[in-house]
From TrEMBL:
This is DNA ligase. NAD(+) binds at residues 79-83, 128-129, 159, 182, 220, 344, 368. DNA ligase that catalyzes the formation of phosphodiester linkages between 5'-phosphoryl and 3'-hydroxyl groups in double-stranded DNA using NAD as a coenzyme and as the energy source for the reaction. It is essential for DNA replication and repair of damaged DNA. Its cofactor is Mg(2+); Mn(2+).
Length: 722
C-alpha cells in the first residue's frame, strides 16, 4: 500500500482526494452566480435595497463565503469585504426585525446563558465504541463481523477518531433546532447557543432535498492546534494560566456560559455519523443513507465538515490495519488532535443486522493509538528562579515513560495552576505528553487520596536569595526583584553566552554553573576575566579545549551590537527588537537617553517593551556592568550598522513564521538582511512579506486580514533573493 501523504489528507490548501463533484456543496454555476452577487453587493456599498428578497440574497452570499472559509479553507473574499457585507446585513435586520430568519449569519451570537444547562434526551443513545490496541484485536473484530453477518467479505470505512468534545445536533425542516453534549450517552446538556458560535456548523441545511424532515447527527468539537497555541499565547500575555490541552479546552468550552467567549476560541466541528432521521411523507430512503460513506458525503455536500477527505474504504482487514498504522505514524503532523482511528461496517443494513450491545455497536470499533498519558505520583515541588526573576514551580514525579520519553519533571507554570488543579504532595496524577509538546499534569486523582497527602505552599520569599517576592496585578507569576539573586545571575550568564546572543562556543550551561560554584565566575563581566590557568586543573579541560574557549571569548567581543543587546536579557526584548534598537543607535549607552515615548516610536515596540527597556537602563548596576564590559574590550559601538544596503530586497520588510522546508529561520533572516531587507517583529501594515512555513500560526491569520501584506513560501523568498 503506498505511503499516505498527510498533507494531502488533512492540511488545508492541498488537493482534496475526492471525486470532483464532492469538492463543494455548490456547483460551478452556483459559485459563479454567488460571486456575481457578491460583487454586486460590494458595489452597492451600504445602499442595499430594503426588501426581504434582497436580504435573503445577501444571507445566501454570506453563507457561501462562510462555507468557503470555515469548511473548505479556501476563501474567495477578503476578510474586510466579508465584514462589510455582514454589517450591511446587520443594519437592515436592525431596521426590519420582522425580516430576520433563524438561520441568518447574524443569529449565531446569542445572549449569555444563565443558570445550569437544561438536560435533554438524545433521540438515539450515544454509545461508546469498543476499543482495540493492536492488529490482533482488529482481526478478531473482522472475524466476529463476518461470522455474525454470514458474509465472506465486508467493506469497512476507516476514519480518524477526533479527540475533542462529542456533540449531537438535531435539524428539523432544514433548521438547526438543538445542540447537546454527549452527557451520559442517554442524556446531555442542551448547548444550542454555544453550538451556533461554531462556524463549521450550518444553521440550516437543505435535508429536504433528500426527503429528510428531521435528522440527528453526531460529531466532535475540536480546537485546531494553531488556534489553541494562539489562545494560550494570549492568556500568557495576560499572565493567566494556559489551557491544558486542545481536547480538554474544546470539551470545556462547550459548557461556558458566555457565547462570546466560545466564539473567541474558534472551535470547529467534524460530523461523523447520522444516528436517526425521519423522512417526509411519501419519500423513499435516499441512496446516500444506505452506506456510511454515502452519508458522510451527503453531509459534506450540505455544508458540514465530515471526514470525507480522510475516509478510506477497504475489504481486507489487513489494509485497514496498514492505514491505521500509517495514520498513527503521522499523527503529530496533523492540525488536530486524534487519538485513534474508527473502523465501521459501510453498509447500513448490515450495521442494523449486526446490532449493538448495551455498551457499544457491534459494527464499529476504535483502534486506539499508543498512550500519550500515564499516571504517576507527585513526590515534591521545587521552585526555580529564572533569568527575569520569575519563580516557577516544578513538579518532581516518579519517572514514567510517555510518548517515547521518560518524564520525571514537569513545569506547573505558576501558583494558580497548583490551586486550579488542587494538587497535593503524594497525589496520584494523570500526566500527558502530546508529540513534541512538553509534558504537563492533566489532573490529580482525588479519589485515590488516603489522607497522607500534604499541601503545596508557594513561597513568600525567593527560594534562592530569600528576598520578598512580588507579583504585578495583571500577572499570575511571582518574581524575585533582587537583581543580585544568585539564580538570576547564573541564568543571565547562561543566556549571555548562548548561541543566539554572544555565541561563546564551549561555554555552555554546565560550564557556567560549574565555574560559578567554584567561585571563578560571579557575573557577566567575569566571563572576560576568567583565569584560564585554573581551568587546566579541571577534568575534561585539556590545552586544546582551553585555547578554543579563550578564542571564542575573544571573538565575542566583536559581535554585532544587536547580539549584545539581546544577550543582556532585558525582559520582553527578543532578537528582532534588539535589531531594531541597534539600528537606531551608535553606542549601547545611548539607550539611557530614550524615553518610553521615544522607544514606542520605533518599529514594533509597544508600551510594555518600552517600559522594560527604560527600567533596565535606569538601573545604575546595569549601567556599571555595561561600562565594565566596554573596559574589558567588548565592542559597544554599532560598527556593523548598515543603513542602506543595495540589494534585491532593499527597502522591503520581512517576517518568517512556521517551520521552513530547508532553511533555519536565522539563516533566512540573515539572507534577507544581506540583500537589504529588514526583519520586523510582528504583523502590521509596515510588513511587506510574510514568509510562511509549516504549522504557521497566529501571524498567518493576522496577515490574511491586512491587504498590503504579501504571504509567500520559502521557494518564493529564495527566488526574490536570487
Amino acid at each position: 500500500m503506498p505511503a499516505l501523504c498527510f498533507k494531502e489528507v488533512l492540511f488545508p490548501g492541498f488537493k482534496v482526494l475526492l471525486d470532483p463533484q464532492m469538492a463543494s456543496m455548490y456547483t460551478k454555476e452556483e459559485i459563479r452566480a454567488l460571486q456575481d452577487q457578491t460583487r454586486a453587493f460590494l458595489k452597492e456599498g451600504t445602499n442595499l435595497p430594503a426588501t426581504p428578497e434582497a436580504l435573503e440574497s445577501l444571507r445566501n452570499v454570506l453563507r457561501f463565503h462562510e462555507h468557503r472559509y470555515y469548511v473548505q479553507n479556501d476563501p474567495l473574499l477578503a476578510d474586510t469585504e466579508y465584514d462589510h457585507l455582514y454589517k450591511m446585513l446587520e443594519a437592515v435586520e436592525k431596521d426590519q426585525p420582522d425580516w430576520v430568519t433563524p438561520d441568518s449569519p447574524t443569529q449565531r451570537v446569542g445572549k449569555s446563558l444563565n443558570g445550569n444547562f437544561k438536560t435533554v434526551q438524545h433521540l438515539v443513545p450515544m454509545l461508546s465504541l469498543d476499543n482495540s490496541y493492536n492488529s490482533d484485536d482488529l482481526k478478531d473484530f473482522d472475524r466476529k463481523v463476518l461470522q455474525l453477518s454470514k458474509k465472506n467479505a465486508v467493506t469497512y470505512c476507516v476514519e480518524p477518531k477526533f479527540d475533542g468534545g462529542s456533540i449531537s445536533l438535531i435539524y428539523e425542516n432544514d433548521l438547526l433546532v438543538r445542540g447537546a453534549t454527549r452527557g451520559n450517552g442517554v442524556e446531555g446538556d442542551e448547548i444550542t447557543t454555544n453550538i451556533r458560535q461554531i462556524r463549521t456548523v450550518p444553521l440550516s441545511a437543505t435535508f429536504s432535498r433528500y426527503g429528510i424532515q428531521q435528522i440527528e447527527i453526531r460529531g466532535e468539537v475540536l480546537i485546531n492546534k494553531n488556534n489553541f497555541k494562539k489562545y494560550n499565547e494570549e492568556l500568557a500575555e495576560k499572565g493567566q494560566a494556559p489551557l491544558a490541552n486542545p481536547r480538554n479546552a474544546a470539551a470545556g468550552t462547550l459548557r461556558i456560559k458566555d457565547p462570546a467567549e466560545v466564539r473567541r476560541r474558534n472551535l470547529e466541528a467534524f460530523v461523523y455519523h447520522i444516528s436517526d432521521y425521519t423522512l417526509l411523507p411519501g419519500r423513499e430512503l435516499p441512496e446516500p443513507l444506505q452506506t456510511h460513506e454515502g452519508s458522510l458525503k451527503l453531509l459534506w455536500e450540505l455544508g458540514f465538515r465530515s471526514p470525507v477527505k480522510e475516509l478510506r474504504t477497504f475489504e481486507r482487514i489487513e489494509d485497514v490495519i496498514d492505514y491505521c498504522l500509517e495514520f498513527e505514524e503521522g499523527r503529530d503532523g496533523l492540525p488536530y488532535e486524534i487519538d485513534g482511528m474508527v473502523i465501521k461496517v459501510n453498509a447500513i443494513d448490515m450495521q442494523e443486522q449486526l446490532g449493538m450491545t448495551s455498551h457499544h455497536p457491534r459494527w464499529a470499533i476504535a483502534f486506539k493509538f499508543k498512550a500519550r498519558q500515564a499516571t504517576s505520583k507527585l513526590l515534591e515541588v521545587k521552585f526555580q528562579v529564572g533569568r527575569t526573576g520569575s519563580v516557577t514551580p516544578v513538579a518532581k514525579i516518579e519517572p514514567v515513560f510517555i510518548g517515547g520519553v521518560t518524564v520525571s519533571s514537569i513545569s506547573l507554570f505558576n501558583e494558580e495552576v497548583i490551586r486550579e488543579k488542587n494538587l497535593k504532595i503524594g497525589d496520584t496524577v494523570l500526566v500527558e505528553r502530546a508529540g513534541d509538546v512538553i509534558p504537563y499534569i492533566v489532573k490529580s486523582m482525588e479519589d485515590l487520596r488516603d489522607g497522607n497527602e500534604t499541601e503545596i505552599h508557594f513561597p513568600k520569599v525567593c527560594p534562592v536569595c530569600s528576598s520578598e517576592l512580588f507579583k504585578e496585578a495583571e500577572e499570575a507569576v511571582w518574581r524575585c526583584i533582587n537583581i543580585e539573586c544568585p539564580a538570576q545571575v547564573v541564568e543571565r550568564m547562561i543566556h549571555f553566552v548562548s548561541k543566539d546572543a554572544l555565541d561563546i562556543r564551549g561555554f555552555g550551561e554546565a560550564n557556567v554553573r560549574k565555574f560559578y560554584e567554584l567561585g571563578w565566575l560571579k557575573d557577566i563581566p567575569g566571563i572576560y576575566k576568567l583565569d584560564f590557568e585554573k581551568l587546566g586543573a579541571l577534568e575534561g579541560f585539556g590545552k586544546k579545549s582551553i585555547d578554543n574557549l579563550q578564542q571564542a571569548i575573544e571573538r565575542s567581543k566583536t559581535q554585532p551590537l544587536h547580539r549584545i543587546i539581546f544577550g543582556l536579557g532585558i525582559r520582553f526584548v527578543g532578537e528582532t527588537t534588539a535589531k531594531v534598537l541597534a539600528a537606531n543607535i551608535s553606542h549601547l549607552l545611548e539607550l539611557q537617553t530614550f524615553s518610553q515615548e521615544a522607544l514606542q516610536g520605533l518599529e514594533d515596540i509597544g508600551p510594555k517593551v518600552a517600559g522594560s527597556i527604560v527600567h533596565f537602563f535606569s538601573n545604575t548596576s546595569n549601567i556599571e556592568m555595561i561600562r565594565e564590559l566596554e573596559t574589558l574590550g567588548v565592542q559597544l559601538t554599532n560598527t556593523h550598522k548598515q543603513l542602506d544596503i543595495a540589494g534585491a530586497l532593499a527597502g522591503q520588510t520581512f517576517l518568517f513564521t512556521g517551520t521552513l522546508p530547508t532553511l533555519k529561520r536565522s539563516e533566512a533572516e540573515a539572507m534577507a538582511e544581506a540583500q537589504g531587507g529588514k526583519i520586523v517583529g510582528g504583523v502590521s501594515a509596515k510588513l511587506n512579506y510574510l514568509v510562511v512555513g509549516e504549522d504557521a500560526g497566529s501571524k498567518l491569520e493576522k496577515a490574511k486580514k491586512i491587504n498590503t501584506v504579501k504571504i509567500i513560501t520559502e521557494a518564493d523568498f529564495l527566488k526574490m533573493v536570487q
